[in-house]
Design goal:
By secondary structure, the chain is an alpha/beta fold. The protein folds into two domains: 3-213, Aldolase class I (TIM Barrel); 230-326, no CATH class. Helix content is 37%, strand content 13%. It has helices at residues 19-31, 41-46, 125-138, 151-161, 180-191, 202-213, 234-242, 269-278, 287-301, 307-326; strands at residues 3-6, 36-39, 56-60, 75-78, 87-93, 111-115, 141-144, 166-169, 230-231, 260-261. The longest helix has 20 residues, at 307-326. It is elongated.
Length: 327
């Protein structure tokens, strides 16, 4: 069975964390069916070793002799392994050619493979497939880096090649890694991973992450961005309203989001009619006139026309029509 291990909490040592936020973040990850959570020694001490049930815990620890200080942690990641069976050797691979060095490694040896930034940038598909086959034989915890913006794709593809594979990711891809939410949703769409599972709590995870990092996730971040289902283009709106699956890989409700038609300079008549229908005012206004005023407003302000501004535009049309009737 494929496994996804989240390493976000090992990336946040520089932030001012609280025990409550860390525990809630870990619990939400577990509810998302993440199989493992990586924590740092600092985070472990912050929560006083109170590890939420339902996941296997990992920790990066240069000196494995100190592992006894962290009861509850299942595995320790290091540059070398001891004979306890709880050590996972980390190997950095900076170039696909370095994969040849894995050929002599025994299949039952626990490994985490970090790097592989360039795995998807070669023109030859044969090079990529040979690399994937070798990874399947070694069966490491794959922890791709994102220097070429391919980490999430590599992680998801590895799980498709190797249905019993394991990848390590971080929320939003923090630390230059594959993004947990992107890999989970990619597997849900492509492989029907957890087909009856809801991922609405991704919005909760986003909020917790923002509170821990005191930053705001970009509104257009894949899967979790607040505006990824906001549509403005006239052709796009028309197509989505007719058949959403032609434009959306998954329904917004799956990730706790909702679709919104945004008015702006790229809008078309379909958008205006949609807004009027929402207000139960269809057929009472000149759609072309409203569209022209909406585009002018959008161009003037350099952004979208809010619902409040649209209501003001409608009131202007009412006044315009009344003046025409008087004249």
């Amino acid at each position: 069975m494929m496994k996804i291990i989240d390493a976000t909490l090992a990336m946040l040592d520089e932030y001012s964390l609280t025990k409550e936020l860390v525990l809630e973040f870990a619990k939400t990850l577990i509810r998302l069916s993440v199989s493992g959570v990586v924590i740092s020694p600092r985070v472990y001490h912050l929560i006083h070793g109170e590890l939420p049930e339902g996941a296997i815990y990992y920790m990066e620890l240069p000196n494995l002799r100190e592992s006894s200080k962290y009861p509850g942690v299942g595995y320790f990641l290091s540059s070398f392994c001891d004979g306890t069976g709880r050590g996972i050797r980390n190997i950095q691979v900076n170039d696909i050619s370095e994969l040849k060095g894995l050929e002599g490694i025994e299949q039952d040896q626990k490994l985490r493979l970090t790097g592989l930034d360039d795995l998807l940038i070669y023109e030859s598909r044969d090079i990529y497939e040979r690399g994937m086959k070798l990874l399947m034989r070694v069966s490491p915890i794959l922890y791709p880096e994102d220097s070429y913006y391919c980490a999430s794709a590599i992680a998801a593809d590895f799980l498709q090649y190797h249905h019993n594979g394991t990848v390590m990711t971080t929320f939003t891809g923090i630390g230059n890694k594959a993004a947990t939410e992107q890999v989970i949703l990619a597997m849900r769409v492509v492989e029907r991973y957890k087909p009856n599972h809801s991922f609405e709590m991704l919005t909760e995870l986003r909020t917790l992450f923002e509170q821990m990092t005191r930053s705001e996730v970009s509104s257009h971040t894949p899967v979790i961005g607040r505006k990824i289902f906001h549509i403005e283009s006239g052709i796009h709106v028309d197509g989505v309203l007719k058949k959403p699956s032609n434009y959306e890989s998954f329904p917004p409700e799956l990730v706790g989001a909702s679709r919104k038609v945004v008015l702006g300079k790229h809008s078309g008549g379909t958008s205006i009619r949609y807004k009027l229908k929402q207000l139960h005012l269809e057929g009472r206004y000149d759609v072309n006139q409203l569209l022209d005023l909406v585009k002018r407003k959008s161009i003037k302000k350099g952004g979208e026309v809010t619902d409040e501004e649209f209501l003001n535009i409608m009131s202007e049309c009412d006044v315009y029509e009344e003046k025409n009737q008087i004249s």
